[in-house]
User: Fold this.
Amino acid sequence: MPSPSSTVKRASSTVPQTRSPPHKRLRRSPSPSPALSTSAAPAPLPSRLPIPDPLTLQRSIPFQQPAQIGSFSYSPIRSQLFDDSALSYYVDPPPRSDLGHRYEHYIERDQSVNEHLDGLVYALMEIGGRPGGDDVRRRAAVVTWRGMLTRLVTAIYERRDGWKLNVMMLDGTLYIEDALETDDLEKRQPTNPQNRIFSYYGYAFESYCTSSLPPDRVPPQEARERAELRKGWGDDVNTNVQWCSIVKTTLGSTRMILGGEVDCVKGKYTEQPDTYVELKTSMAITNQRQEENFERKLLKFWAQSFLLGIPTITVGFRDPSGRLTTTQHLQTLSIPRLVRGKPHAWDAAPCLAFASQTLEFLRAQVVRDPSAVWRAEFDPRARELRVRALGREERSALETGDEMERVGFLPKRYVDWVEERRGDKGA
Assistant:
């Protein structure tokens, strides 16, 4: 499959389709703080949003080019650091790299720990401490991880995997997180040896493709060691370590703040997404069925990178034994054209249109009781999104599930900080 050659423009991205009515800017609804709610009102009846046929949802939805407002790192012991110490730089991986290299030294992050939105909102507190740094948060209608919005963008084509989200409102802004219960957290930790090694292949590819220094600043001795002794290997895999970017963007009428992990940058780090690279692995394509499966996977590849403004996706294709066979660089904005016109094709326009519609639907539900915590559940077989307010016991379980003092699923420290600033704004 040939690699597209188009490049990402810095201007706002729009998926052109048929004409659509103009959008009005979605205003942040004033709301009481969840901290002020001491008794739960009777839960409203569940509400449902049908998942439309993509062919019926072809309106053009504007999407603003994401702009970075901050970043942070996670250390090898999963401590959050407000610096770029975990930032990595892209290097070409050696041909025929062994993606099972040093598997015995694999350190996995504890997936049974629910981190909620903690890292993202603590970073917003750090950003908000700078002069004028809190303006973006105050204007945002949605704050969430990139992965949550990816679910909304891809839902219109999803036929197999369902999901659940928790949603709450604070100072007029919707906060959206993964709704992870005890069973869900246990399932996230891989126990099947085959699944574990397949997961490792992806992280090993990242190690071969990254360096802690830009290529032009790597000392000659280290470069020789990497090329000759370590065969291009970077560092042993420790999935606690991450570098995360926080961007502001707008989908349709909804201003958003999104946080997400970035694998590396290519060349110079500009403090903007224009040099970011997403790294992926996939089985080498040897027949028509594998090609179709890969092109379906491209929907999620595209959505994850598009939403964070990542212009390039580098895919490492491997054989069944875990050997790297080829590497391909894809331009994110060109990916939808790769599948256009094929029987299994997907289209970016209905993806963005449905995500925009879903955000507006969620806000309309939450404002019915802004002090509640809401649950949005996507059922791919019933083709609908169901939304309801959590009951008293469900909310209590959410707030007492770890040692952190929480209001809903947000840290109380963050809620208090927002409340203090709302008071400052009104003074």
The CA atoms of residues 398 and 409 lie 6 Å apart. The longest helix spans residues 288-308. The mean pLDDT is 88.
